């Protein structure tokens, strides 16, 4: 026994040495793999003397991109020349991106730029008020004047937190203002002589859906999907706007000067909606499993949908020449399934629209000025923007016209995610199927609407849900249980609607509404609205 | 008469048991066959005619996408195989050495060490501290090493192995010592060869764990050359869900959805990802059953 005991230290030492070498491997290879840290330190010291280019990290979400390195190398040539910096674009999966960013933020890891937004757990507002992003109000004026002036001032209100701007708005080619309406299959509309031009409400569609149901076996007259609930996700259709998360109780009316918050599920509009959709469901216009259906792509790709909700602005009444290029959503391009679109509402800018896509500067960024300069460069240098969005001309795409390209298959492809890196407003290239002239005319209308459209009365107000967290969680559970079955018409509202309201109340819906009202009143007093 | 009756009963129960297992096997097999069939079917026929066990319109387009598309699946294969092979061997080495040490009565603080190891089964720091540790202190973000280190020791495997080693007769080890064998010699030449069942079992567990680990990649890997196979697969499957549930946030998202691969491409990637690991089972199976009971019964 004794000799063995003496050996214990050597065994432990051996294990320690082993573990050290393992850790050692990691740290020793680090400087080669990640020169960022060392580089950053040296640049800070010698910035004025040698003007070493700084490396800026930019986190975005995207599906995997092929040949990213080649494009970044070409992009960095431009960026280096213009602002003496290099870009390291880090692409993370859509599904993992929100969690990853939240982890990076909570661990205080530094990043220069990142894509953020107010949907899908990206939590722009929460993170901004937590101090995760840098206040770039002044930096934008100084280093990114074009990016700033391109977006109307009223829209900048929509990304402010406590009066400060934390994100540069990626003003998109689609504009800010949107209208809600429907998309109908053109062949059926023609066949059944449906007067789509005068359709203004859900009920107006009933004759069309009925004709399709009777005359077209195998076709689903109306697509209901719980990914985009026809009531809870579309407040503007009912003349309302949401405060914070769409589905949580507490909406306001767009034309209400006093901004009174109420429970949208108690309104007459909702009762009417339920009646219509129950009727549609009973008559078989909606799929039997609509309430639980998450993946709507197969039906759309198989051309089984006759009508569905859409965001058509301008629609075919506004601009009839769009007809030659409007197809049913996600139907195979080669089959050319034409559609007609009709909007039910006037163009409107909801409160959460400006914050849909923003670029933020990390609070721990070492080069905030350069980062903002890069935002400006991406927003103003078309060659650079097109390079990242579409690749290299001749290699990844062919140019057919001034603003029209044809993508080459199996080459670099950014998966149409250019809206995450900068403002695509007026700077997009169109694919071979688009008619550039029509497209330009359409964009003109859209941009015009951005200046004239009604803006949500709560634009610039940020709801802090901290105090009613439990109630929101409870309400959320109730919504999951009732909302989709009711809204898809799967259950009889006469039986379940009262029960639904009762459960919402018990879950604390009134507390949430009161809290929203309280915060809005304070906000109005502070901002003189 | 009696024997005949007994025989009949035997036949009946055998039939029942066999039938049960046939049904059970079919329940396991059919989904896999369906995935295989979908991966070999033309996308369009899938949409119009639905899923069939035998492809209605045969097509290799799914596999073509998987190999030529944006996903660089071949590179991911290399990384995953490398990580699985190196990781499993290192895991076996580290875990077996540790379990051997805490299984020997001569080691004074074995129980204290064992407690520290098993404590982590029940308690851990949580995601954020884990992330901070790896990125800020170990600086292992974006390196191949983190993919290996993260699974290097598993307390449950230490527990299983320790119990196995405890069951080895002390006299073998003592006689080796008398013959002048050092501790390492005893361990590698005598203990390990006697422990092939447990090594095979743990080896199988851990190689599957390494093979299926996508979360580490999602957290720490930013360089697309270091993506693992399961991470790519995960992204193919979940991106589509995420984007669809947020489609109304922006018109731009609708376009992004259009770029995602179709059903058959996703199923082809699934088939490719179960490929090699499924071969581990037949190879290791004969150790597997024995190893499992040996580890558990003599606890």
List the helices and strands and how they pair.
The complex is a heterodimer of chains A (529) and B (299).
Chain A: H1 2-33, H2 36-50, E1 54-61, H3 68-83, E2 85-92, H4 97-106, E3 113-116, H5 124-130, H6 137-143, H7 145-150, H8 153-156, E4 160-161, E5 164-165, E6 167-169, E7 181-185, H9 186-191, H10 202-215, E8 220-222, E9 240-242, E10 251-253, H11 268-282, H12 297-301, E11 305-310, E12 339-343, E13 348-349, E14 358-361, H13 368-380, H14 382-390, E15 397-399, E16 405-407, H15 436-452, E17 454-455, H16 469-487, H17 493-507, H18 509-527
Parallel strand pairs in A: 1-2, 1-3, 8-11, 13-17
Antiparallel strand pairs in A: 3-14, 4-5, 6-14, 7-11, 7-12, 9-10, 15-16
Helix pairs in contact in A: 16-17
Chain B: H1 2-39, H2 43-49, H3 61-68, H4 73-103, H5 110-122, H6 127-137, H7 144-149, H8 155-167, H9 170-178, H10 183-194, H11 196-212, H12 215-220, H13 229-245, H14 251-258, H15 263-278, H16 280-297
Helix pairs in contact in B: 1-15, 3-15, 4-8, 4-11, 5-8, 9-10, 11-16, 13-15
Average pLDDT score of chain B: 83
Helix and strand composition category of chain A: alpha/beta
Number of helices of chain B: 16
Q: Decide which structural class fits the backbone of chain B.
A: mainly alpha
Proportion of strand residues of chain A:
5-15%
Reported for the largest beta sheet of chain B, the result is: none
Please state the oligomeric state of the protein chains shown. heterodimer
Based on CA inertia axes, which overall geometry of chain A fits?
A: globular
Low-confidence segments of chain B: 295-299
Give the number of DSSP strands of chain B.
0
Order of helices and strands of chain B: HHHHHHHHHHHHHHHH
Low-confidence segments of chain A: 1-5, 20-49
Alpha carbon gap, first and last residue of chain A = 85 Å
Helix coverage percent of residues of chain B? over 70%
